[in-house]
């Protein structure tokens, strides 16, 4: 049973004097308790807008949100604001890429974590402080009692990200959305944070939506992966399928462009030509067509639909499937 | 490696004073951004520098080009001691050594057309030939259309801007290019284009590179030799092929194990060595081995009070660790805390 079910989600930004921006275009995915689902794609493909839409954090004015977002059976798009707010602190939480922008710079870390505990779990302030220290310890912050009194700028980037995760964990959310949670961090700190998130999913059955552009992170973390391009999901598969037999030309192109540390050196990289800017509007064909090596005539005439079951594809001329023994 | 290195660095230190007070500024400490580095880069080679944010990679690159003044040490370029030159000689030397930056947008003036960005270095260095012909040539070399000359930086994508940045760097036919995070601001699919371009230029123009980056997979792909930095010092230097196969310094071991590999099968088999805590401040570099506060192999003797020098532990492989032989032979293993970030104890000698 899925905990979060997003169906045909579209987000359109209307800007005065300019063309509408359809940032998310008919995206569907679901996450079950204890499952980690990945959203991958290059910058601007709509990952963050999707996560903001799920959390109900998009501005109301000038933004059109369509489709359905059901959390544990409750439709969020029509839920009154106060009910949504309660749900957001207690059952669903989000961690952003830039921890500085989501922590209040003039409020000590401890107050920001205890606030959530007092508000959503009704703890006394003493209880909340003890619990907050325990949370900081759990996310690997040394000397938590002292750190609780410090302000965000006094912590390193890695510690701020951990403090933010601690705040997100304060209510043991059933759904956690992590939007590029380690992109700004060094790899050794990234390894700590990813280990922490893995433990959380395994121990408490939290459903995790992990947003990243790093295919290596996806390979180690996600059960199911959704590859996005220009606002739409173009390929969806279990991580083993996706990496062993990528079938969408964009996915295969991404995998061929990254050098691998565990492979002999010296093979030339095979980049995708052009840039994510060179897209065709979906209304005119496949958005990836201007950069695609597998392009056929049909690609510039109509938009391909997303087809298939556990391994779905949006492509007229996909790459041959490889046998995957799993 | 050829006999005479093109670039030779000895005992390089760059310290920045930390000041306090408003009127009478007192110096209360030193940021030891680069803290005694020796390295050689052979003609036509690529030297990769890796390490965590703040470990001094960019400062080292800038010190080579004299964009920051070293506190101590020498930089010798093609037999010439860079620090002993007059300002005019330094200016002339600089045309042979150029820099490519991380954020191509930040390093380009938004009001300058590409043509003017590219002719500027030509003018300052007294180029008398046909400027616009050279611009067309440069654009062609980096894979931009000739029409790009009349356009402005904001009209380009990140990858195209990086091509402009590279065109500017090669305008004067330099011999050495220091590329500071040349691809880290770019989308994955674009990174490969720029990596290939840098490789092609090296071949065509006989360039020597120092590539600074935190993405080890990219650095390893382009480099012949890799230097791993930690808190201002090199802790390991190795031919790039051997570094992943067998990292020797405990920091390199942890760093390598932390890098995610885009293959679920590999990820499932991997054993991660987690480092506890954060990078210490470069104002307070730990005494003894600078890595000892986070080292999962730390021993009760020597580590905390005796600084290990960079020494040849194997042919062609330099490591700054007292215990490298014992660790490589498996006689010292990582502490259990390396697999559980909440535990705290030191490395265990196997008896
Ligand atoms: N002008 C300066 N004044 C004082 N401190 C400085 C100055 N420039 C750099 N530093 C400090 O020196 C240290 C090394 O900085 P540097 O920019 O060389 O690191 P880096 O390895 O390039 O890091 P990154 O990966 O984040 O680019 C840092 O602690 C930095 O804050
Ligand atoms: N507030 C906004 N107004 C207009 N366009 C926006 C806004 N936020 C995002 N967009 C656009 O929506 C698209 C998707 O953005 P985003 O979800 O942030 O991408 P990413 O996949 O990098 O997270 C981009 O084209 C972006 O420019
Ligand atoms: S639909 Fe056509 S253009 Fe689009 S990815 Fe498939 S083959 Fe390429
Ligand atoms: S000298 Fe000691 S602390 Fe330093 S790296 Fe070697 S084992 Fe670790
Ligand atoms: Mg984003
Ligand atoms: Mg730097």
From TrEMBL, chain A:
GO BP terms, alphabetized: peptide transport
SMART domains named in the record: AAA
Membrane topology qualifier: Peripheral membrane protein
Protein keywords: ATP-binding, Cell membrane, Membrane, Nucleotide-binding, Transport
Principal cellular location given in the protein's record: membrane
CDD domains: ABC_NikE_OppD_transporters (cd03257)
Name under which the protein is recorded: Peptide/nickel transport system ATP-binding protein
Classification lineage: Bacteria, Bacillati, Actinomycetota, Actinomycetes, Streptosporangiales
Automatic annotation (TrEMBL), chain B:
Database matches in PROSITE patterns: ABC_TRANSPORTER_1, ABC_TRANSPORTER_2
SMART domains: AAA
Superkingdom classification of source: Bacteria
Matching CDD domains: ABC_NikE_OppD_transporters (cd03257)
Domain ABC transporter: 9-256
Family annotation (Pfam families): ABC_tran (PF00005), oligo_HPY (PF08352)
One of the GO BP terms on file: transmembrane transport
SUPFAM superfamilies: P-loop containing nucleoside triphosphate hydrolases
GO MF entry, a single one: ATP binding
Keywords in alphabetical order: ATP-binding, Nucleotide-binding, Transport
UniProt-listed NCBIfam families: oligo_HPY
Homology family: Belongs to the ABC transporter superfamily.
Listed name of the protein: Peptide/nickel transport system ATP-binding protein
